[in-house]
């Protein structure tokens, strides 16, 4: 089962990490770069992307194909 992605701040860097993983998939100097990377991976692997603030709280959540409540079209 695919794991969700999280954009988190740690030790002065922004990291993209898979849920349950201790190591970051990739490390960035800016939050925007980390979100861009997370969005690309999320779209290609159809995952959920959780974007955290510097304090660790979830600021935003984006669904890329795995949304249990998709919008009606």
What gyration radius follows from the Cα positions, in whole Å? 12 Å
Tell me the number of helical segments per DSSP (H or I, 4 or more residues long). 1
Mean pLDDT: 90
Q: What is the number of domains? A: 1
- Largest sheet data: 5 strands, mixed
Termini Cα gap: 27 Å
Q: Structural class of the secondary structure composition?
A: alpha+beta
Shape summary: globular
Specify the helix fraction band. Answer: 10-25%
Count of DSSP E strands?
A: 5
Can you describe what's shown?
With 73 residues, this protein is of the alpha+beta class. It has one domain (5-63). It has one helix at 31-45; strands at 5-10, 13-18, 26-28, 48-52, 58-63. The longest helix has 15 residues, at 31-45. The protein is globular. The model has no long low-confidence stretch (mean pLDDT 90).
Task: Describe the structure concisely for a colleague.
With 73 residues, this protein is of the alpha+beta class.
Which properties best describe this structure?
21% helix, 1 helix, alpha+beta, 5 strands, 5-stranded mixed sheet, 73 residues
Task: Tell me the layout of helices and strands.
Layout: E1 5-10, E2 13-18, E3 26-28, H1 31-45, E4 48-52, E5 58-63
Parallel strand pairs: 1-4
Antiparallel strand pairs: 1-2, 2-3, 4-5
